[in-house]
Amino acid sequence: MADNKERTISDLTRIITTGTISGGEPVTLTFTAKDGTQVPVSECDVLGTSGQDLGYCLDCGSEHLEVEPDACNYECADCGKDSVFGASELLIMGCIS
């Protein structure tokens, strides 16, 4: 758990100083759901600069539109669980790498 917190702090520092998580050109990150589904996530979606508010289900990996960046525990239209989180929130939680 400490590694995730340290990585997240490092990510946030790069965002503040460079405007990107990677420190350079925007990259594609990966979100891994509890069921093992791996979902590519644009760095722009995580930073909220893509013009879309995307969220992802922690349980099944389903992508959802119109989800606030800091959303927590929204209902998933695919699996029915209250496991949808905003992309920025998932980064803070250490779920996106």
Estimate what percentage of residues fall within beta strands.
15-25%
* Major sheet: 3 strands, antiparallel
Strand order of the largest sheet: 4-3-5
Radius of gyration in whole Å, from Cα? 13 Å
Mean of residue pLDDT?
Answer: 83
The helix-strand sequence is HEEHEEEH
Counted beta strands? 5
The outline comes out as globular
Q: In angstroms, what separates the terminal alpha carbons?
A: 14 Å
* Uncertain spans: none
Helicity level, as a percent range?
25-40%
Tally of contiguous helical segments = 3
> What class, by secondary structure content?
alpha+beta
Description of the molecule:
With 97 residues, this protein is α+β, with helices and mostly antiparallel strands. It has a domain at 26-92. Helix content is 29%, strand content 21%. It contains three helices and five strands, in the order H-E-E-H-E-E-E-H. The strands form two sheets. A three-stranded antiparallel β-sheet has the order 4-3-5. Strands 1-2 form a two-stranded antiparallel ribbon. Strand 1 and strand 2 (38-42) form a beta hairpin. The longest helix is centred in the N-terminal third of the chain and has 17 residues, at 2-18. It is globular and about 40 Å long. The model has no long low-confidence stretch (mean pLDDT 83).
